[in-house]
Amino acid sequence: MDDLNLSKFCIRLGDHCLIMAHRQSELCSKGPFLEEDIAQINLGLDLLGQAEALLIYAAKLEGKGRTADDLAFRRSERQFHNFMLTEQPNTDFAFVIVRQYFMSLYLLKTYQVLAEVEDETLSGIALKALKELTYHERHLSMWILRLGDGTDESQQRMQTAVNELWMFVGELYEEDALDLLAQQASYAPKGEEMKSFLMAQITAKFAEASLTIPESIYMTTGSKQGIHTEYLGFLLTEMQYLQRAYPDAKW
User: Fold this and answer.
1) Among 74-88, 119-133, 215-229, which is the least confidently predicted range?
2) For residues 67 and 137, what is the distance between their CA atoms, to the nearest angstrom?
3) Helices (H), 115-218
4) DSSP string, 1-29
5) For residue 240, what are the CA distances in angstroms to 15, 32, 100, 182?
6) From 48's CA, which of 19, 42, 124, 203 has a CA 20 to 30 Å away?
7) Mapped to the 3 state alphabet, what secondary structure does 38-60 carry?
């Protein structure tokens, strides 16, 4: 894969992490108890670190003189390629857990593949991220079980979150031209491989947690072409405000 396509690949992966990190940052002081409040913010910090590393490398590969800050704060909504799942709001704690659990599985599988590539920068990013994502998946799995197999109300809230968010899962294994290039270069798992991994993990965990996978639900598409839900525009307005208000500021 040439540098330009590899840059696009890194931007896409970085966007997933960046938008999730922002959603996690919104949970500061809103956790169900102090230790979990800190835990959720730490998950966000891990994702932010992954996003920064990926966007720094993407900017270098691109060779246009842009920085990671330019990529994060000076792109419009249609120029972001994060999954629609990542931009969904923190409706309640159940939505946070289900959204992050689905994405933790996707990132875990993605980084497992990237850890084996010959590109030392990407493999280094992936190896560090794998340690973080292993904890993320374990922590979020604990909450899936605790809430899904908990009280009637917690189970109902979790099932509602699953039902509402399931329509976004299809994008996690959707393929486009860039995905096919990445697969040919062994930078990404095939779509069917990702789907099999996700479904196996989710089905097993939901069986333990008394949760069910929705059937015959329409799956969204389009985020890889810059199409998003209404939530991303509001998120970027907040995230990019300072940089856009003072574009020449030096820190």
Assistant:
1) 215-229
2) 31
3) 120-148, 152-165, 177-184, 191-208
4) --HHHHHHHHHHHHHHHHHHHHHHHTTTT
5) 14, 28, 23, 30
6) 203
7) HHHHHHHHHHHHHHHHHHHHHHH
User: By the 8 A CB rule, do 68 and 59 touch?
Assistant: yes
Q: What is each CA distance from 177 to 1, 5, 62, 224, in whole angstroms?
A: 12, 10, 18, 10
Q: Tens of pLDDT along 118-141?
A: 999 999 999 999 999 999 999 999
Other beta carbons within 10 angstroms of residue 208's beta carbon come to 12
pLDDT digits (tens, 9 = 90+) for 88-111: 999 999 999 999 999 999 999 999
d(CA 220, CA 170): 7
* Helix 3-25 and helix 230-239, axial crossing angle in degrees, nearest 10: 80
> Is 79:175 a contact under the CB 8 Å cutoff?
no
Task: State how far the Cα of 80 lies from the Cα of 172, in Å rounded to an integer.
Answer: 16
Question: How far apart (Å, rounded) are the C-alpha atoms in residues 230 and 75?
Answer: 16
Query: What does the alpha-carbon distance between residue 208 and residue 169 come to, in Å, rounded to a whole number?
Result: 20
Residue ranges and CATH numbers for the domains of the chain are 3-245 (1.20.1260.10)
Could you tell me if 97 and 143 are in contact, meaning their C-beta atoms sit under 8 angstroms apart? Answer: yes
For residues 85 and 237, give the distance between their C-alpha atoms in angstroms, rounded to a whole number.
Answer: 18
**Residue 244, token pair as written in the block:** 């856009």
The amino acid that residue 29 corresponds to is S
Contact (Cβ atoms closer than 8 angstroms) between residue 104 and residue 68: no
Read off the tokens for 250. 């030096």
